Amino acid sequence: MNMMIAFQLKQHVLFLVMLVIGSMMLPPLLATFEIQCIDRERQALLKFKQDLGDVAGVLSSWESHQDCCKWRGIRCDNETNHVTALDFSRLTDSARWHVFDGEISSSLLELQHLNHLDLSDILLTATKIKFPEFIGHLSRLKYIDLSGGVGFEGAIPQQLGNLSELQHLDLGGSYYVYTTSLDWLYTLHSLEYLDLSGVNLSQVTNWLPALAKVPSLRELHLSVCHLPEIILSSSRPTMMNFSSLAILDLSRNYLSPHSIYSWMFNLSGSISYVDLSSNSLQGSIPDAFQNIPSLSYLDMSYNEIEGGIPRLFGNLSLLETLNLAYNNLYGEFPHFPEVMKNLFERKLKHLDISWNRLNGSIPEDIGNLFNLKFLDLSDNRLSGTLPESIGRLSKLEVLYLRSNHLEGIISEVHLFNLSMLRELDLSFNSFQFKINSCFVPPFQLESIQLANCTQGPQFPEWLRTQHNFSDIDMSRAQISDTIPAWFWDLSSVGLSFLNFSHNHLYGKLPDLTSKFFPHHALLDLSSNNLEGTLPLLPPSNWSLNLSQNRFSGSLESLCNSGDLSHLDVSDNLLTGQFPDCFQHIGSSFITLNLANNNLSGSIFPVSSHCYLQSLNLRNNSFAGELLQSLRDCNLQVIDLGKNKLSGSIPAWIGDNWSDLVVLSLRSNDLYGEIPSSICHMTQLQILDLSLNKINGTIPKCLNNLTAMAQEQSSTLTISYGMITPNGRSLKLDYDDSAIIMWKGVESEYKSTLRLVKTIDLSRNHLTGEIPNEITSLVGLVSLNLSRNFIAGSIPPQIGQLHLLDFLDLSGNKLSGVIPMSLSHLTYIGVLNLSYNNLSGRIPSSTQLQSFDVSAYKGNSGLCGPPMTNTCPGDEVILNPEKTGHHDEEDTLITTGFYISLGLGFVFGFWGTCGSLLFKKSWRHTFFKV
Question: Which membrane topology term applies here (predicted)?
Answer without folding.
Answer: Single-pass type I membrane protein
